Amino acid sequence: MKKINSLRPEFEALAASYQALMRNKNAEEALMQFAMMTQSRIEKETTDVEQEETLLKMKANRTLSLRSERIEKESQQLVLKGQHEALSKQRIRIDGEVQKTQLLVSQYDETYTLEMIIDGHREHLAEKEQALELKQDAVKRQEELNKLNQTISQNEALVLRLQASVDNQKSKLFNQLSEPVWLKLLALNTEVAEANPGYQLTVSQKQVIEAFTDLMLPDTFGYDFLGAKLKAVSADKRESDQSRLEKALVLLDSQRKRAAEINAMDKESRFEQMKTLNALKAEIKKYKSGYRFIVSVQ
After folding, report:
1. Count of helices and strands (H, E) across the chain
2. What does the pLDDT profile of the chain (298 residues) look like in tens digits?
3. Which residues pair with 225 in a beta bridge?
4. 172: nearest Cα among 189, 180, 164
5. How far apart are CA 191 and CA 172, in angstroms?
């Protein structure tokens, strides 16, 4: 008993150590459980953080996209604003041109179509530009005068022929040939049909002409002349020699006046030439402006 009693302090120390060991073992298990719980919590929070970061990136990208779209819309808005301002200015200009064109067109008779007015302006413009060119170039004036004199000579000869034909209507082929024969000549060639030999044809000459026109066979189109189709022309549509003579005289008179105007150009003083040139340039500018207005409306 004494020996056992002497071992009590050692037993109590061992008991205390055992209790401490058991406490440490429980603490280690609790620590391991805490570590496992903490690791699980860390992994969950890491996943949550990654998801939040992904959402943040998506939102950031969306924000950048929206900002880029806003900048693009603002740029488009500026472009549209510029276009609107340009179109507004263009509309004001066009409205002004339309008013000028309407004022210009209103000066013509209602029977004139827009195409007729445009053609008239184009012709007037060409005449004025040619007049300006002739005023500025002596060589061209001489060339124009030479061509004009040649045309005048041809028309003078035509007037003489027409006057002779008017004075001697009985000798016209129209009055010497039968209507069926003459109509065939008219379908073949107007100048031939309107010829005036100036004398009465002989019987043999008439027979030759009639034999020639016998080659022209009537068909649904008009006449068949050795395979060529000739359109029939009505006799009531022929123009009389008197009418042709009057037109030729009017044309000849205008050509002579034109030749006189060209001849007068070389006799003008320097002051008169400059005055005429300035007037022509101003008139050409006016015609060009009017022509542009009318065409823009069309």
Report:
1. 9, 3
2. 777 777 777 777 777 777 777 776 676 677 777 778 888 888 888 888 888 888 888 888 888 888 888 888 888 888 888 888 888 888 887 777 667 666 666 666 666 665 666 666 666 666 766 666 666 666 677 777 888 889 999 999 989 988 888 888 888 888 899 989 989 998 888 888 888 888 899 999 999 999 999 999 998 888 998 888 888 887 776 777 788 888 889 998 988 988 887 777 666 566 566 666 666 566 666 655 655 555 554 5
3. 216, 228
4. 164
5. 12
DSSP state of 240: P
Hey, which bits of the chain come out as E strands?
216-218, 222-225, 228-231
118 contacts 263 by C-beta, under 8 angstroms: no
Number of domains in the chain: 1
Residue 8 domain-assigned (yes or no): no
Half-sphere exposure of 160 (CA within 13 A, CB side): 6
Residue-number span of the structural domain to which 174 is assigned: 114-296
199: tokens are: 């004398």
Task: Tell me whether residue 79 is in a domain.
Answer: no
- Domain membership of residue 252 (yes or no) is yes
Going by C-alpha positions, the residue among 274, 293, 295 that lies closest to residue 285 is 293
Q: How far is CA 113 from CA 98, 106, 108, 121, 294, in A?
A: 16, 11, 9, 12, 11
Locate 114 and state its tokens.
């827009």
- Asked whether residue 184 is assigned to any structural domain, the reply reads yes
